[in-house]
Design the sequence.
């Protein structure tokens, strides 16, 4: 019992909902939980989309100069001009999903399920749900609804606070 009360805690705000931004919060949350930390994740604005039942995540090459894809034995940068072309987001997303599959990396859905199984507390921002007209039934089972005060309460009790 004493160990449970002395557990380290980590909280994070998840604000991004693209494929490339979905991995860091779930990887960090599941790793921290595996290390014995109590973890809470507050999903707000576009991050809330990561809690939807059906994920259809994309990666945007627009304004992402660090995006270099392995091609022909090299790493080729995606120029911003390419990102402005119709279908560029779909192509970049397809390439990223193919690399993830080929490398045997867990899917976002798998990591999200692992987080739930690891007792990571997920909080869906009620204000964001209202703003974007997202219904509770659109979300997976498990997250609780809350607001900024819910996150602040968790953050003030945490040893680690992250903004992703």
Sequence:
């Amino acid at each position: 019992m004493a160990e449970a009360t002395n557990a380290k805690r980590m909280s994070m705000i998840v604000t991004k909902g693209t494929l490339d931004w979905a991995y860091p919060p779930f990887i960090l949350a599941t790793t921290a939980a595996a290390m014995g930390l109590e973890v809470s994740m507050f999903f707000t604005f576009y991050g809330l989309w990561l809690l939807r039942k059906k994920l259809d995540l994309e990666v945007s090459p627009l304004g992402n100069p660090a995006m270099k894809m392995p091609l022909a034995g090299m790493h080729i940068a995606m120029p911003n001009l390419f990102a402005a072309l119709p279908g560029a987001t779909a192509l970049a997303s397809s390439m990223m999903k193919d690399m993830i599959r080929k490398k045997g990396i867990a899917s976002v859905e798998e990591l999200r399920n692992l987080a739930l199984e690891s007792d990571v507390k997920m909080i869906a921002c009620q204000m964001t749900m209202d703003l974007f007209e997202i219904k509770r039934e659109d979300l997976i089972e498990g997250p609780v609804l809350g607001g900024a005060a819910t996150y602040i309460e968790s953050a003030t009790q945490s040893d680690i606070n992250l903004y992703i």
